[in-house]
Design a protein that fits this description.
Layout lengths: L11 H16 L7 H16 L5 E6 L15 E2 L6 E10 L1 H5 L6 E8 L11 E7 L13 H12 L7 E5 L5 H10 L2 E5 L3 H8 L8 E7 H14 L2 E7 L3 H9 L10 H4 L6 E6 L10 E3 L2 E10 L4 E10 H8 L6
Helix pairs in contact: 1-2, 6-7
Amino acid sequence: MRNEQVPDRNIAMELVRTTEAAALAAARWMGRGDKNASDGAAVNAMRMMLDTVDMDGVIVIGEGEKDQAPMLFNGERVGSGRGPQVDVAVDPIDGTRLLALGRPNALSVVAVAPRGTMYNPHDIFYMEKIAVGPAAKGMIDLSAPVLWNIQQVARAKELAVEEVTVVILDRDRNTEIVDEVRAAGARIRFITDGDVAGAVMTGLAGTGVDMLLGIGGSPEGVVAASALKCLEGDFQARLWARNDEDRRYAADHGLDLTEVLTIEHLVNSDDVFFAASGITTGDLLKGVEYVAGGATSESLVMRSRSGTIRRIQTEHHWRKLQQISGDRYTG
């Protein structure tokens, strides 16, 4: 008998409608300096479209709790209630500050995997991360020195260490890692926000990015691991406590701050779906562009089981969309 809990179709093709809707709703707020308003628009649009997808979904990774922004909350049920039981990770805007300031690389992302397979970091909001593409899969170790990992990537990709490019979030908490990368002689591409895009770029040819290192958001880490599952890349993480309160919380909830979490810990399934749509044009995807009577968008859609990777260019026509879903879809 067929296992009904395993998706038997590529629901990533339905999920991309949710990231497109969030991107269209959020993009109108580009550069307007209002993070909560843009987040609220994206969340409402994504929630509306998620409920049209034939799945019985539970939000495992929801963005917003750490800064009191609008959110799709952990434990929320999404989908039509029909179809496979799945875990859902969402980030309606990865790079909310980027969008608010009118900067590149803001995305809307969603990932789905069978129920019970996605790691939940609870209220530990940050983690140390390392991400690489398929060439270096199985060759990294977060517990090893930065130099060793860079050398491993250089060897796997047949590059000199000086030719390896590492993406790092430009944060004070990453100063020590930056110093180690520089001491190794590798190149650095700093990003100000939105490390999901940085992690995904390690798995795609032609991006000029070889690995990602540093401390960033835990929700984004699970989403990025889901994407790298689809790209046959690799990802490791370790929960990072900001203060004594985080350390007490981890102890009370049985979270090991020393454990290296592999990609299998983070997403323990070979049937993962991922979709991302650009909000502001960046290194990974073009952002929403407005034209008379509508807009255009670019999305990335992937499924791990089939290995399918699609880039989708979409034309959106306001009049027809509003006939279907009203003003909520278009902001």
